[in-house]
């Protein structure tokens, strides 16, 4: 994509790059991406801090369930989150009176909803591991709770806070489905602008913005690498506080904020469910009954439930691909390096396979499309093309789930097995596999859930007669109107409920495994 955009005639054209960056539209897109991501990050930190404290340091009844619920928004497909906020804030929605529909406020609210769980997991896990004696000593010397927080606790949490902020900013600036669904053509981030430009075949502009995004992502990943080096490679994001203390009077504000955040987390999902059960203001199951009816709307070539089956099939293929490659990468980067160049090479390899985490899925999808569209790689109609790009999107989560576990295995155990005559394959089976099998199942769950909800890359590569469910939801949301007893947006809401329920079920199963999850990224 970069070659075709920046050197369409075989020669690099820096003037084209400058021309694209000088466009008024490009300036507005870059500015909107910057301030919306920064505001979403700030609000996620402000709201996530008290929730992290309440759920990881205070003996809250049902804390484990609440932690699982805070994770659900993050793993929901971005197109589902966008649909949920349209249902919540649109005309007739539960919060339609706010007048936020089609405004930047709706986009920022959705970004906070989507990313607050990252702050809760990363900061909460670090907070749970802090030695409380430093705080107790400061309090014994007369420091107020606020002063203890500012002078003792927050400095100790600084690496976790910075890591969470960098990850959230990365996700806010690349939330494709959320911005496309809520912002349309009026409000665009770099991610959605790349999509719109490639649809308009303006490859030089799309390539320019892709280059800007890649450079930004590489810089953020470098910052994350340094932060992980300071705080330890594996922040125990799923660690339950060993001895949570009973709630005190001073914990009331944090508990109130936690209750409000949990309520705010539930509202978009409730609004989505309500919208799926209504047509023209009347309660009905028509939207759900229409999901399996062929030819019910001209917006689709196949029934919605057929698209769900396609998604499940694609997710299975993407999962085994991501697991196979992710396990190989994790094994390579966690083996003991014998020299400094080897250690540097392993670090670069680890960082390289983290790039799909932040590089636009649109760049991956469209780049793969133009790469395989003609010989010698004429693979456009290959059935494994969509699973391949979804496996690339899920790969960083698989790698970051497996790397901390494999890195924690004492290499002397492998050496002992080898000295007793075990082959490398047998050493892997008797030493590594017993430790890694639960994280491996969790990684499979995350890959499967990520694949189910992937929208940006798949929107380019899926065939009209074999769409996935997120693509179908996007088409229905983009085709307003009513057909018979149901409406296209209503069918989109019903399909989003089905997709959200499927992804949530997968994530709750993964949560039962209690291994490092999204926060470990």
Automatic annotation (TrEMBL):
<feature type="transmembrane region" description="Helical">
    <location>
        <begin position="428"/>
        <end position="449"/>
    </location>
</feature>
<dbReference type="Pfam" id="PF00528">
    <property type="entry name" value="BPD_transp_1"/>
</dbReference>
<feature type="transmembrane region" description="Helical">
    <location>
        <begin position="490"/>
        <end position="510"/>
    </location>
</feature>
<keyword id="KW-0997">Cell inner membrane</keyword>
<keyword id="KW-1003">Cell membrane</keyword>
<feature type="transmembrane region" description="Helical">
    <location>
        <begin position="203"/>
        <end position="224"/>
    </location>
</feature>
<feature type="domain" description="ABC transmembrane type-1">
    <location>
        <begin position="30"/>
        <end position="224"/>
    </location>
</feature>
<dbReference type="InterPro" id="IPR035906">
    <property type="entry name" value="MetI-like_sf"/>
</dbReference>
<feature type="transmembrane region" description="Helical">
    <location>
        <begin position="252"/>
        <end position="275"/>
    </location>
</feature>
<feature type="transmembrane region" description="Helical">
    <location>
        <begin position="385"/>
        <end position="407"/>
    </location>
</feature>
<feature type="transmembrane region" description="Helical">
    <location>
        <begin position="353"/>
        <end position="373"/>
    </location>
</feature>
<keyword id="KW-0812">Transmembrane</keyword>
<keyword id="KW-0472">Membrane</keyword>
<feature type="transmembrane region" description="Helical">
    <location>
        <begin position="312"/>
        <end position="333"/>
    </location>
</feature>
<feature type="transmembrane region" description="Helical">
    <location>
        <begin position="160"/>
        <end position="183"/>
    </location>
</feature>
<feature type="transmembrane region" description="Helical">
    <location>
        <begin position="29"/>
        <end position="56"/>
    </location>
</feature>
<feature type="transmembrane region" description="Helical">
    <location>
        <begin position="68"/>
        <end position="85"/>
    </location>
</feature>
<feature type="domain" description="ABC transmembrane type-1">
    <location>
        <begin position="308"/>
        <end position="510"/>
    </location>
</feature>
<dbReference type="GO" id="GO:0055085">
    <property type="term" value="P:transmembrane transport"/>
</dbReference>
<keyword id="KW-1133">Transmembrane helix</keyword>
<dbReference type="GO" id="GO:0005886">
    <property type="term" value="C:plasma membrane"/>
</dbReference>
<protein>
    <submittedName>
        <fullName>Iron ABC transporter permease</fullName>
    </submittedName>
</protein>
<comment type="similarity">
    <text>Belongs to the binding-protein-dependent transport system permease family.</text>
</comment>
<dbReference type="InterPro" id="IPR000515">
    <property type="entry name" value="MetI-like"/>
</dbReference>
<feature type="transmembrane region" description="Helical">
    <location>
        <begin position="105"/>
        <end position="123"/>
    </location>
</feature>
<keyword id="KW-0813">Transport</keyword>
């Amino acid at each position: 994509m970069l070659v075709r955009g920046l050197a369409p005639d075989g020669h690099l054209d820096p003037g084209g790059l400058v021309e694209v960056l000088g466009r008024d539209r490009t300036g507005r897109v870059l500015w909107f991406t910057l301030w919306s991501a920064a505001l979403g990050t700030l609000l996620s930190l402000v709201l996530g801090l008290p929730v992290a404290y309440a759920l990881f340091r205070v003996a809250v009844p049902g804390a484990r369930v609440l932690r699982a619920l805070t994770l659900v928004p993050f793993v929901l497909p971005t197109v589902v989150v966008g649909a949920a906020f349209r249902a919540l804030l649109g005309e007739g929605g539960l919060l339609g009176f706010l007048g936020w529909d089609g405004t930047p406020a709706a986009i920022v609210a959705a970004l906070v909803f989507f990313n607050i769980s990252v702050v809760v997991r990363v900061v909460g896990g670090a907070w749970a591991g802090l030695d409380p004696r430093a705080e107790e000593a400061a309090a014994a010397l007369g420091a107020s709770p606020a002063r203890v927080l500012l002078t003792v606790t927050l400095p100790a949490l600084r690496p976790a806070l910075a890591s969470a902020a960098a990850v959230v900013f990365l996700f806010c600036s690349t939330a494709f489905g959320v911005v496309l669904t809520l912002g349309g053509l009026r409000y665009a981030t770099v991610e959605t602008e790349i999509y719109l430009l490639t649809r308009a075949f303006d490859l030089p502009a799309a390539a320019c913005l892709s280059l800007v995004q890649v450079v930004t992502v590489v810089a953020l990943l470098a910052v994350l690498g340094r932060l992980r080096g300071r705080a330890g490679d594996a922040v125990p994001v799923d660690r339950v506080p060993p001895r949570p203390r009973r709630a005190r009077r001073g914990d009331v504000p944090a508990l109130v904020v936690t209750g409000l955040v949990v309520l705010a987390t539930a509202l978009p999902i409730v609004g989505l469910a309500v919208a799926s059960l209504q047509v023209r203001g009347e309660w009905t199951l028509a939207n759900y009954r229409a999901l399996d009816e062929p030819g019910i709307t001209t917006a689709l070539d196949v029934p919605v439930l057929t698209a769900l089956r396609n998604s499940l099939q694609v997710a299975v293929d993407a999962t085994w691909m991501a697991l196979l490659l992710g396990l190989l990468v994790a094994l390579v980067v966690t083996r003991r390096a014998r020299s400094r160049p080897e250690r540097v090479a392993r670090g670069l390899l680890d960082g390289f396979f983290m790039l799909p985490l932040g590089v636009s899925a649109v760049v991956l999808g469209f780049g793969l499309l133009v790469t395989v569209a003609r010989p010698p790689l004429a693979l456009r109609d290959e059935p494994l093309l969509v699973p391949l790009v979804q496996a690339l999107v899920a790969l960083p989560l698989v790698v970051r789930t497996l790397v901390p576990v494999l890195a924690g295995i004492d290499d002397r155990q492998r050496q002992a097995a080898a000295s007793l005559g075990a082959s490398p394959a047998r050493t892997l089976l008797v030493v590594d596999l017993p430790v890694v099998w639960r994280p491996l199942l969790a990684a499979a769950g995350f890959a499967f859930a990520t694949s189910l909800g992937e929208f940006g890359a798949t929107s380019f590569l899926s065939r009209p007669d074999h769409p996935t469910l997120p693509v179908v939801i996007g088409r229905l949301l983009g085709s307003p109107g009513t057909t018979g007893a149901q409406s296209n947006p209503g069918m989109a809401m019903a399909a989003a409920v089905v997709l959200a329920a499927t992804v949530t079920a997968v994530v709750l199963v993964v949560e039962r495994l209690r291994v490092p999850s999204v926060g470990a990224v």
